[in-house]
Each structure stands twice: as C-alpha cells, then as structure tokens.
Specification:
Length: 463
C-alpha cells in the first residue's frame, strides 16, 4: 500500500480524471476505465524493471486490439472474427515478460467483453487464447514458432467454444472461423512485429538472430579489418551468453550485444593490441594522454557506426556501457610514471565517459570483456591462475562501482565467476607437446639403416 501511494502523484490523478471524462463522452463503461487504471498502478509497482515498459507503449498495444474489436462488433461481425491472441503474442515477444503479457490479456479481455453481445463467451475466448498464445511464443527464436503457436491457439479456441457449449457441436462455420482466427492472428503478428520493434526501440529474439548472421556488413568488416577484435567479440559473446543463462537473464541479447560492443575499433583497429599481431605497438611512440584518447574514443565511434548501420538501440546500449566509467589503468599508470613537476594527472581524465551498465545483460558483457582481455594476457595460464584472475577482475569492477546501476546480486556474481572460470579453462587448456618433424624423420632413417644391416637370416627371424 505504501509503494502504491508513493507511485501516485498529481499527474496520475489528472490523467485518470481525463480518462474518465473521455470514457463518459465516448460512452465507454466507466468501470472499465477504472479497472485499467488499477492495472496500470500495478504495473507501476511490478514492471519498472522491464525495458521500454511505459504507459504509451502499452496503451498503443491495448488500443490496437480494442479499436479493432470495437469496429468488428459495431459492424455486426461475430465475435469469432476478433483476433484475441494478437496483443498477448506481441506483448510477450516485445517485452519477454509473461506476467506483463497476462495482465495485457486480462485488460483486453475485460475491454472486449464490455461491448460485445456475448460478454461471458468473449471473455473466456480472449482469456484462454491470450494466455495460451503468450506461453507458446515465450522465448521464440524462429518465425515458424509463431505460426505453430497460432495453430495451437486455434485449437484452444475451438476447444474453448466446445466446452462453453457443454460439448454440444453447433454450426460448423463458428468453429472454422475460430480456427482460422488463431492462424491469421499469428500471421498478423509476424507482419506487424517489425513495426512495433521500431516504435518501441526494442529487439525481439527473431531480429537478434538475424543480426547474428556473419554476413552482416558490420561483422564482415570486423573479419576483414579487425580480425583480432572479431575473435575477441566471439569469445565475449560465448562467455556472456552462458553466464546469462546461469543467472536467468536474456542470454541471446547478451551474445548479440557482445558481437557488436567493440565495433568502434573499426575506425583505428591497429591501435588495439588484439589487431597488432607481430607489428610494433603503436602506443610506444605516443604520449599516454594521446593513447587514452584513442582507446576511449572507440566507444563514441562505435555508437556513431551503430547508428549509421541502423542497429537497434538496445544493442547501442552495449556499446555505450561495456566499459562503464572505468579507468584506463594501463595508460593512467604510464602517465604517472612519466609525470613532470608542473603536471597534474587526474584519474577522472583517464576514465570512460559511461554510463554504467543498467541491465544484467550489459553488466555481464562488461565483466566478460574485462575477463577475456585479462585472460589473454596471462602467461602460462593454469586453472588456479585463471580462477584467481576471474575473481580479481570481478571484485575490482564491483569495488569500482561499475555494477551499481544494474540488478546483479552477489549470488549472480558467484554464478558468473563459475561460468567464466569453467569456459576460460577450456579455452586456455594445456596442450600436449608434439615431437618435432625433423627428429621423427631422423629417427625413422636411423631405424631403416639399422634394419638394412641385418642378415637375411635375422630378417627371417625378425621380419
């Protein structure tokens, strides 16, 4: 109750009053408006952690189905033509939150039932089809999953009508209409999904997987121009995805975000160690202040490249936040070592501009990025050294405050460190040393020569 009162302010009261006035003028049942307001207050308490979960986006989804259903009913179309499952499926796909989808299903069901001639029937059809379709598309990664969900939802809708009428089979056209309704609803979702992704600045699993295609122009550029960064991003992606699976975060979003987090290095790839190969380190001839500008600038340049290529804003967050406001430690130390008497080296000047990670996924990528880079610098990596390194990196990021804005718990950090240790030990495992080819060849010749000196009798005994 206290939380609810904290969320209520004069703006919300004014908006509620305006909604009631609009409902009264439009002839909409005022109780429906009040019910929707109560649901909204519930969402204010429960769903603030959902990315892009705001009243405008939810209202647009709600009005989409309500307006469509109202139009069909007013033009004397049967309720079986109302696409009950469109909004529940869209909500689940866009926000990846089943609770939010079920609340939207409830809101749409009450609204649709209020202006139909068969409120109980419409309510049950909407609730059951909406709930079933929400669960069926949760975590969907392929378009055919949505079509399959539409077919199964169609079956649920037909079964619901049969049960409502107590197993009495009436006119067949109603059951056919409901069956086609479920399938057509899934086709509508596939068609309008990209539009809502654009409007809500979000990315679904389906669009994320399209960005995972290595024929994407940005990934192709990384392969050709910055192969070291590309390989680094792949490892960070694998680390991030597995860690997010362990803590229940969006693993696919973290993996794709990791693929693109370092695209800013395409501007000056040779200035980053992973792309230098056997070349001399360019930073050896640069002042630390100049080197840190080049290094830190890859975040800003990455955002510009991402916007140029039209990457989704949810991926741009990974570019902005994958260093937080952490210290460029190497060049800060170099600056302190080369300090002159009249110079004043401030730590703030060697920190990334931020912002800090504000989601679990961006925070995991920040940790994976740091751990992978540090692991690559290890000499003679052993499981013990890797374990010590992972704990040290994560503790430093925690103490430095880089994880203050996200929702990672200490338990999450422990699970993440376990995943990093296990995967890095697999990547940097010891290999068996193979004998040199020349030695093998010499030993083979020596053996053949000794064998040639054997007598014929010996050869018969020792063939």
């Amino acid at each position: 109750m206290i939380k609810l009162l904290e969320k209520i302010n004069y703006k919300l009261i004014i908006n509620l009053a305006l909604a009631l006035i609009f409902s009264y003028i439009s002839g909409i049942n005022l109780a429906i408006t009040l019910f929707l307001a109560v649901l909204y207050f519930y969402l204010k308490i429960r769903c603030l952690h959902i990315k892009n979960c705001n009243l405008l986006n939810l209202a647009l989804l709600f009005l989409t189905i309500s307006t469509g259903a109202y139009y069909l009913v007013k033009h004397n179309f049967p309720i079986y033509y109302i696409p009950f499952s469109v909004v529940p499926m869209l909500t689940t796909l866009l926000f990846s939150n089943l609770e939010l989808s079920l609340l939207m299903t409830l809101a749409c069901s009450v609204s649709i039932a209020s202006f139909t001639g068969y409120p109980a029937q419409a309510m049950l059809l909407s609730l059951i089809s909406g709930t079933a379709s929400s669960m069926l598309v949760l975590g969907a990664r392929k378009r055919n999953t949505i079509i399959r969900a539409g077919i199964l939802t169609a079956v649920f809708q037909v079964l619901t009508l049969v049960l409502i009428e107590r197993l009495w089979i009436g006119l067949a056209d109603r059951y056919l209409a409901l069956f086609l309704n479920g399938i057509i609803s899934s086709i509508i979702v596939l068609g309008v999904l990209p539009v809502f992704e654009y409007l809500f600045n979000t990315a679904t699993n389906i669009s994320l997987l399209e960005l995972a295609d290595f024929h994407h122009p940005l990934l192709q550029r990384m392969i050709q121009e910055a192969p070291g960064t590309y390989h680094h991003s792949l490892i960070v992606g694998n680390l991030s995805e597995t860690a997010c699976q362990a803590i229940g975060a969006n693993a696919l979003l973290a993996r794709i975000g990791a693929y693109y987090h370092d695209i800013g290095k395409l501007q000056k790839p040779d200035y980053f160690s992973e792309n230098q190969g056997l070349q001399a380190n360019i930073h050896g001839s640069l002042a630390p202040s100049m080197s840190k500008l080049v290094i830190m600038n890859h975040v800003k340049e990455g955002v510009e490249i991402a916007k140029k290529y039209g990457l989704n804003p949810s991926l741009i967050d990974f570019i902005r936040q994958h260093h937080g406001n952490s210290l460029v430690y190497y060049f800060y130390r170099r600056a302190l070592e080369n300090i002159e008497e009249d110079q004043d080296i401030k730590e703030e000047g060697f920190r990334y501009p931020g912002p800090k990670p504000d989601t679990k996924e961006t925070a995991v990528v920040l940790l994976a990025d740091s751990v992978e880079a540090a692991g690559r610098a290890l000499k003679d990596p052993t499981p013990a050294k890797i374990e010590e390194l992972v704990h040290k990196v994560i503790n430093n990021k925690f103490i430095d405050g880089q994880l203050d804005e996200c929702e990672l718990t200490l338990n999450d950090l422990e699970k993440i460190s376990e995943v990093f240790i296990r995967l890095l030990c697999g990547i940097y495992h010891n290999r068996a040393s193979y004998p040199e080819g020349r030695k093998i060849e010499n030993n083979h010749k020596k053996s053949s020569k000794e064998n040639s000196h054997l007598s014929d009798k010996d050869k018969k005994v020792n063939p």
